[in-house]
């Protein structure tokens, strides 16, 4: 049995989406157990109209909620009875509960995971790895995307190893193609950190390093994992997300411009919505924190029930396929 | 009279687009003189069918061309008779020719400008500042975008000052809103470099600092200038460009999916092309190198004649409005 704690509060659509998503995941997997963490009364009310295997779902009461506007380090210090901190404490104190999902404040989740749950032995710093859809119909992981603003080459090479193992464990990608985010494709390109990291990555035997990748290639599907520092990695995915959304907004505006375009829109609306769906990374599960002693999946703040379900399935797969153990073994050689 | 040297070779559409673009600029401005640099015979052939004021156009012969696949530092050292190096030498040796435009290799232009033309006194390192269109119909400058991969806070604060003066001189923007590219909006966000830079920018009296900006906000038009290091700045604009193009490709694919969507496409094609035009930064002039002793405008490699014309007009405005002098004065106080 794989046991996953779900922080039922903190996201924009919680507890509705978190409770419903967790229940949907239970229905899909017979060896999954879920512990919903948060206000018991509210959670029970959400559960009232849902049918599920009650023997595999329990509630851990928490009276407080950390919201996205709170300063992470203050929040995790003062709100001991928040759903997030109770979930973290549960993981810390239980040998058989090894994974959690939260759609709450990214900063608070990162701080709580790093400070309270701790790292796998040998991991310098855990890295945040979200998954983006590519326009060729696949996915791409980017690590780190914001857990570490100042990185060194050793950290980046660890992200490469952990990210490769993760893409294999959670998505079944064999021998993931690892690329270094850089400002040119040639080996000598980039800042001091990139040059040093390139030299390390190309010598590593346990990853499939394919060289540098430029930011404009990110969505094309020519790599499975992009390795980057948390600062420029965050810029990379936010710029990508922002530009895609802004472009779709312009397209939408063009469609309602006049009667003629509105008529045209009727014919293509359905297929354009599919483009929007493809770009929506709610459909691809959450971002995982790689290298923490227990599995932590961070869903988008605006996650709906499908996104939450995907996050729970993702946590389940990481545990089922022994990702943490694989990382621990690999870290002995990095 | 403002004299602008135009590197007629090096771009994808040169010399056709460079010669035609330069001539178009001559027609628009009566106090502009253009020196076309490159193979005289080929340039004369391009000029044959164009009508223009011959007294304001001359040719400086150069027998070689630097192409984009050459290593910049090698190219500028070995190809002394290339159109780029001849243009640079012309600027260096002539007191009355103070601006140049090139659509050739970015690396070679940067290397040639920094090493051969030199800096304005007080400027630590010149910064590359491209202009992007915003979805609210305006423009936004981003500096630095790749001239300096490893930056310090002093350099970033100089980019803020030079970029502000540039947006005023070339685009008439009064009191440009300056934002620091960061991974969150709060003052305490970011890596060590961002924290140090924020502290400097907020104390500066000669810029209109508005705080941090996240990458996903870039195209929305809430700032006029984004200040960044050359590494993450390059990632920022390439990710933005890449995601916008990939999204438009998906939209286009959806339009030709089946008979129904093809019919719909007939009604909206024209307006969708306008979206593509809006996103196309050929329409907004080139990237300028801020802080060099003479004015250098770098057009996109794929610049058409309109893009080249815009680059020449941009160089003209920067000279006409005494941007270099304004930077020199400002640098005494940074």
What does this structure look like?
Two copies of one chain form a homodimer. Chain A is α/β, with parallel strands linked by helices. Chain A folds into two domains: 1-123 and 291-322, Isopropylmalate Dehydrogenase (3-Layer(aba) Sandwich), CATH 3.40.718; 124-281, Isopropylmalate Dehydrogenase (3-Layer(aba) Sandwich). Helix content of chain A is 46%, strand content 16%. Chain A contains eleven helices and twelve strands. The first copy, chain A, has helices spanning 16-28, 40-47, 72-78, 83-93, 106-117, 153-171, 192-201, 230-255, 259-279, 305-320, 323-331, and strands at 2-7, 32-38, 57-61, 99-102, 127-129, 131-133, 139-143, 177-181, 208-213, 225-227, 287-290, 295-298. In chain A, the strands form two sheets. Chain A has a seven-stranded mixed beta sheet with strand order 3-2-1-4-12-11-5, sandwiched between helices. A five-stranded mixed beta sheet of chain A has the order 6-7-10-8-9. In chain A, a hairpin with a 5-residue loop joins strand 6 and strand 7. In chain A, helix 4 runs parallel beside helix 5 (106-117), helix 6 crosses helix 7 and helix 6 (153-171) runs antiparallel to helix 11. The longest helix of chain A has 26 residues, at 230-255. The model of chain A has no long low-confidence stretch (mean pLDDT 93). Chains A and B meet through helix 8 and helix 9 of A and helix 8 and helix 9 of B.
């Amino acid at each position: 049995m794989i046991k996953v704690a779900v922080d039922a509060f903190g996201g924009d659509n919680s507890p509705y989406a978190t409770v419903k998503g967790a229940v949907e995941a239970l229905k899909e997997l017979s060896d999954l157990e879920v512990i919903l963490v948060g206000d018991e009364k509210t959670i029970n009310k959400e559960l009232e109209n849902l049918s599920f295997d009650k023997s595999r779902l329990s509630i851990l009461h928490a009276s407080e909620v950390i919201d996205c506007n709170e300063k992470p380090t203050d929040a995790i210090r003062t709100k001991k009875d928040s759903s997030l901190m109770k979930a973290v404490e549960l993981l810390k104190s239980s040998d058989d509960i090894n994974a959690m999902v939260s759609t709450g404040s990214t900063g608070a989740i990162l701080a709580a995971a790093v400070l309270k749950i701790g790292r796998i032995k040998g991991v310098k710093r855990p890295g945040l790895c979200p998954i983006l859809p590519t326009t060729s119909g696949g996915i791409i992981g980017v690590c780190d995307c914001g857990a570490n603003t100042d990185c060194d080459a050793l950290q980046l090479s660890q992200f490469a190893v952990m990210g490769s193992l993760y893409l294999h464990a959670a998505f079944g990608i064999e021998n993931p193609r690892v690329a270094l985010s850089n400002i040119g494709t040639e080996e000598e390109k980039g800042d001091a950190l990139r040059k040093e990291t390139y030299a390390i990555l190309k010598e590593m035997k346990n990853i499939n390093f394919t060289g540098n990748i430029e930011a404009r290639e990110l969505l094309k599907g020519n790599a499975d994992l992009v390795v980057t520092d948390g600062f420029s990695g965050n810029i990379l995915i936010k710029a990508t997300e922002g530009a895609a959304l802004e472009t779709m907004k312009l397209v939408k505006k063009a469609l309602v411009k006049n009667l003629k375009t509105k008529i045209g829109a009727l014919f293509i609306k359905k297929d354009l919505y599919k483009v929007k769906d493809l770009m929506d990374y709610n459909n691809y599960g959450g971002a995982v924190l790689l290298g923490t002693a227990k599995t932590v999946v961070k869903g988008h703040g605006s996650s709906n029930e499908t996104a939450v379900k995907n996050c729970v399935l993702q946590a389940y797969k990481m545990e089922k396929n022994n990702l943490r153990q694989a990382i621990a073994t690999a870290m002995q050689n990095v």
